[in-house]
TrEMBL record:
GO terms for MF: ABC-type oligopeptide transporter activity; ATP binding; ATP hydrolysis activity
Lineage: Bacteria, Bacillati, Bacillota, Bacilli, Bacillales
Membrane topology: Multi-pass membrane protein
Organism: Paenibacillus phyllosphaerae
TM spans (from-to): 45-65, 85-105, 162-181, 187-205, 270-295, 307-328
Highest taxon listed in the record's lineage: Bacteria
Domain annotation ABC transmembrane type-1: ranges: 46-330
Sequence ranges assigned to domain ABC transporter in this UniProt record: 365-598
Compartments in which it is found: Cell membrane
Principal subcellular localisation of the protein: membrane
UniProt-recorded name of the protein: ATP-binding cassette subfamily B protein
Gene3D superfamilies linked to this entry: ABC transporter type 1, transmembrane domain (1.20.1560.10), P-loop containing nucleotide triphosphate hydrolases (3.40.50.300)
Length: 600
């Protein structure tokens, strides 16, 4: 299986797993999710753990060998010199094997952790493609980038910390306590007592660390959001001489991050220092106790070194755990951050709905109403409209009248809260919108191009398009002159968001993108309102080719651009005020006539 396919499968698995994991609350949910991330990689983990134990043998053996050598050296009459060489040979072999076994340990662990990272990002991308447009409008792009990049990296680092630090520390503690118990119960009590003390210290600081991590993460997301906005606003900022205002705004955010970060650092410093002092006191007590035992002849002198070695091992392991605990807490906070997206229920539900294989383009709006959540104000109220296949319908009216809302209902971005929209005699709410939208093409007011070539943008999402079809779309979109002028023609890069092209050129590329799909329904949302007269002329010619024989919905502010529409619908306060042709509405001298007079 290709790596990309494995990542996609992992993304699906993580998305489903998180739905199950979030049935529990708090850290239980996060821990369950973290474990579930490795589903399908347990074999790699088990092999990695095996090599972890083997590579750690020098740590376990060195205190014993050191103790043996000291006991042999202090009692030469009872031991032959050969015993020293045997101990030396054993420890040399055990140390040497660490090189290959450590490499194998990291290799198998990395296979699992990197798979987790890619799969988790895949799950986020899949979820983002399922979330409603309303959710995306509310979610700031900077916050989203922080979640996909910073938080996923923090979760991946959390899983690495578990494998690279937590597991080795746990094994070290188990082995050290086990060996010590087998030699002396009384000495082992010093070792065993360190565990509940460490638990107490964690419990004291846990809530503060968790809360401070949450505050710091939110400030980082806020900074990311504001930085994203700042970059987009640079032309406006420069044009109005507001550089100092924007700098001050970002500096305020950075100061907040600085304060939260300093608070987090200080809390972690107190946490680490408390651990170190506590365990150092225990180590000194253990040294004093074992020295008394040796002084009385109850244990060999070399055993003091052995117990100190194992105590140092436990001390280093517990200190290591305490040191990484803030990072682990940060990882759990990132899981909670990611969960804000993964467990969101604001998704389009297309499962089990009718899949369209064809579309004629007949629409019927029947008593359609729309109220946004948390509001009592009707955005649309009692909208009734019949649209025949191939008919061109234009919507006009003042800002806020409900024109663009109707287009969003046609696309399926919004669902009516009352009434229904019928498409070819079928309730749109019962149709799989993914199959329905394959017959739609949308040309918005502000077009969205990505930083590829003109060809890439026109053929976006389509494969193996014949060159003749691309050329036909270019001709119909009135792009021939532009393409001929460019040194690389269709393969010219348009820059980020199409920044190397004019507004009219971007709109014509969007129209070519729509034409090449041969849609049955066209949505034009103020496609010429931001253009100059020359650009509007070229775009209008391209639009005339685009709408031929297709059901078309147009929102326009310039009333002169919709003279040839089959019918014009005048919207006022969310209701249909008038319907008719251009000449009919002018002759009535009603709402449309008044709008027209305002533009003269």
């Amino acid at each position: 299986m290709e790596r990309t396919e494995r990542n996609v499968l992992a993304g699906r698995t993580y998305e489903d797993t998180f739905k199950q994991a979030t049935q529990q609350q708090g850290e239980q949910s996060a821990i369950r999710f973290l474990i579930s991330l490795y589903k399908g990689n347990f074999r790699n983990l088990l092999i990695s753990v095996l090599f972890l134990i083997i590579k750690s043998l020098p740590v376990y053996a060195l205190p014993i060998v050191t103790s043996n050598i000291i006991n042999i050296a202090t009692n030469p009459g009872e031991h032959a010199i050969r015993s020293l060489w045997i101990n030396f040979a054993v420890i040399a072999v055990i140390i040497a094997q660490n090189i290959p076994t450590h490499a194998w340990y990291v290799s198998y662990m990395s296979r699992a952790s990197r798979h987790v990272e890619a799969g988790l990002r895949s799950a986020l991308v899949r979820k983002l493609q399922q979330l409603s447009i309303t959710y995306h409008r509310d979610l700031q792009s900077g916050r989203l980038q922080s979640k996909v990049l910073r938080d996923v990296e923090a979760v991946e680092q959390l899983s690495k910390q578990v494998m690279l630090s937590l597991l080795p520390a746990v094994f070290n503690i188990i082995v050290a306590v086990g060996i010590t118990v087998s030699h002396s119960w009384s000495v082992s009590m010093f070792f065993i007592l360190t565990i509940p003390i460490s638990v107490v210290l964690v419990s004291i600081f846990r809530r503060k660390i968790r809360r401070t991590n949450s505050e710091f993460r939110q400030e980082i997301e806020q900074m990311s959001s504001r930085m994203s906005e700042m970059v987009e606003m640079i032309p406006v900022t420069r044009a109005h001489g507001l550089e100092k205002v924007e700098i001050q705004r970002i500096d305020d955010t950075l100061r907040n991050i600085q304060g939260k970060g300093r608070k987090l650092d200080l809390l972690e410093a107190y946490f680490g220092a408390s651990n170190w002092v506590t365990f150092q006191i225990f180590q000194v007590l253990c040294l004093f106790f074992t020295a008394i035992l040796a002084y009385r002849g109850q244990i060999p002198v070399g055993d003091i070194v052995m117990y100190q070695g194992f105590f140092n091992m436990i001390l280093a392991s517990i200190t290591g755990l305490m040191t990484i605990y803030p990072n682990i807490a940060k990882g759990f906070e990132s899981i909670r951050s990611i969960s804000e997206i993964l467990k969101s229920q604001e998704i389009e539900r297309n499962q089990g709905k009718l899949k369209l294989t064809s579309l004629r383009g007949e629409f019927s709006f029947q008593q359609v109403q729309l109220i946004y959540p948390g509001s009592e104000h009707h955005v649309l109220e009692e909208v009734n409209l019949e649209v025949q296949p191939g008919e061109c319908i234009a919507f006009v009216g003042a800002s806020g009248a409900g024109k663009s809302t109707i287009l969003n209902l046609v696309i399926g971005f919004l669902q009516p809260t009352g009434g229904k929209i019928m498409v070819d005699g079928v309730d749109l709410d019962t149709i799989d919108l993914r199959t329905y939208r394959k017959f739609l093409a949308v040309v918005p007011q502000t077009n969205i191009l990505f930083s590829g070539s003109i060809r890439d943008n026109i053929c976006y999402g389509l494969k193996d398009i014949p060159e003749e079809r691309i050329e036909e779309a270019i001709r119909m979109a009135n792009l021939e002159e532009l393409v001929a002028r460019l040194p690389k023609g269709l393969d010219t890069m348009v820059g980020e968001h199409g920044g190397k092209l004019s507004g009219g050129q971007r709109q014509r590329i969007a129209i070519a993108r729509a034409l090449i799909r041969d849609p049955r329904v066209i949505i034009l949302d103020e496609a010429t309102s931001a253009l100059d007269n020359a650009s509007e002329f070229h775009v209008q010619k391209a639009m005339q080719e685009l709408i031929k024989g297709r059901t078309t919905f147009i929102v326009a502010h310039r009333l002169s651009t919709i003279r040839d529409a089959d019918r014009i619908v005048v919207m006022k306060n969310g209701r249909v005020a008038e319907v008719g042709t251009f000449d009919e509405l002018i002759a009535r001298k009603g709402e449309f006539y008044n709008l027209k007079q305002l533009q003269i």
